Amino acid sequence: MFQLRNIIFSVCLLIFSFRSFAQNGFCSAKNKSFKDNEKLTFRVYYNVSFVWINAGNAHFIIKPDELNNHKVYHVTGDGRTAKTYVFFKVNDQYETYIDKETLLPLRFVRNVNEGGFKINQDVAFNHKKGIATSDKKEYTIPKCTQDVLSAIYFARNINYDEYKPGDKIPFSMFLDDKVYNLYIKYGGKEVVETRMGTYHAIKISPLLIEGTIFEGGEKMTIWVSDDENHIPLRVESPILVGSIKVDLVGYENLKNPFSSAISE
User: Fold this and answer.
1) How far is CA 159 from CA 23, 25, 98, 192, 228, in A?
2) Do 86 and 103 touch, CB atoms closer than 8 A?
3) 138 — pLDDT class (breaks 50, 70, 90)
């Protein structure tokens, strides 16, 4: 009973008080946090009446690829409900093709099946012209616009040491043929204990897009690893009925040492 666009967006959208760095800096970041063939696996739990239920899994995989003569990170994010979870069936797949030079998306593909609700979308980005093409229609987009999946990987390269608790980091995202002006609120650093271990973490709260089960606002909390990888460790959020928790349960081929781990 979860909507993957918000899990993908939040499962790690690491995206001060609105400083001038935000938009210009987002256009010139260099990748220091991930590499080809990285794989992250998450387990999603649903809570109702104080009982946590295994609701499903989400996987994020990076493969090297080429698109329109650009070398890209081909990122796939997919989420499926567990066979034992009978409340709400999900089978979603998201793909983004991220330019390795600019860390901006060149193409975004979404195939969604959530309880019989289906969406198939293919978006091409032309950042020089400031245009996103979706279903043969053109939409004007701001400079450095991300899609819901590329934003996660772009935001992993933010240096959170430059911010203080309460700062907001703004960005633009194109989804459902609309541009959303969103932000992540930085909440400081703390130790978080998950099902996989105990970690030094960075705490953030994204501004969510209101959906079928999520309310809009800053009610979701995300903890990401306090090291150069900036991978999500835990996500917690209330939903319209109950709450969800998302935990990292597996990782492969990280770019940097997983130095935030205290114990696993």
Assistant:
1) 14, 11, 20, 20, 9
2) no
3) very high
Alpha helices, DSSP H, located in 11-50: 21-26
- Compute CA distances 68 → 23, 126, 153, whole Å: 25, 11, 21
Q: What is the pTM of this model?
A: 0.83
Look at residue 115 in the predicted model and tell me its pLDDT: 60
Q: Kindly calculate the radius of gyration of the chain based on its CA atoms and give it in whole angstroms.
A: 17
Residue ranges in the chain assigned as alpha helix (H) = 4-10, 21-26, 150-155
> Which two structure tokens, joined as six digits, stand for 233?
């460790």
Residue-level pLDDT at 4: 44
Distance set, CA 211 to CA 5, 51, 71, 111, 216 (Å): 9, 24, 34, 17, 8
Query: Using one digit for the tens of pLDDT, what is the confidence trace for 4-31?
Result: 444 444 443 332 222 223 343 456 678 9
Alpha-carbon dihedral sign for residues 244, 87, 9, 157: positive
Inter-residue contact 166 to 183 (CB < 8 Å)? no
Using alpha carbons, select from 56, 13, 63, 5 the residue that is nearest to residue 39.
Answer: 63
